[in-house]
Amino acid sequence: MINVLIAILVVFVTGMVAAVILALASYYMAVPENAKVSEVRECLPGANCGACGYTGCDGYAEAVASGKAASNLCIPGGASVAKAISEITGASAEEFTPPVAFVHCNGTSDAAVKTAEYEGLKTCAAMCLSCSGDSACKYGCLGCGDCADSCPVDAICLEDGIARINREICIGCGACVKTCPKHIISLIPRTGMIAVACSSCDAGAQTRKNCKNGCIACKKCEKTCPNGAITVINNCARIDYDKCTSCGLCRDVCPTGCIISVG
Fold this sequence. Notes:
The strands form 4 sheets. The protein has a two-stranded antiparallel sheet. Strands 2-3 form a two-stranded antiparallel sheet. By secondary structure, the chain is an alpha+beta fold.
């Protein structure tokens, strides 16, 4: 019995000593908490979308509080959050204009030529891995809605086999951009009223065979633009939004209608 009591006493004393050591260590080795981190965190919407470039809202709050990040990187929060963060950190409020996502494809069911019937797992990722899609155009939207599933605000829907983005709802977080296996979704300036709804890099004649709405690289848009804002690269028109004034001249001369107004 005495041996049992001695064993219990040893364990108790050992535990008390360890507790004291841990308490002292936590006191003397504690890292001072930056009060601004919690204040900034409370301002953030909690979407954890990663569009700011950090590992969720916690990571962004820490970066802002330590002066390593700007106050206007929270795309879902917008200008109101940027202003609130600036008031907490004491930094000047920076101008905030969130981008908007756009699907560079208009290969609807009546425009794109179908070459196969896909019967596998109904996700864009699975379809892309197995057969690159069921359309003759290997650059177009697969229409399974992986982007819609990734959208935190339900700004994406499928319409006639193509993903469509509601500009009024889109917060420009970029989740759909990262999700699309075809890489045909990009973030464009919200002020950009003209966009190219095609991603095909095939020669014009082949694109025309695959989809009647595709860019045929005729360069009429390039020659018409007064600001040099549109250039045909790899057989597809690309817009430089730093130069584009949304005059619409490129849209008007496009023979296939792949340059569209998005406003």
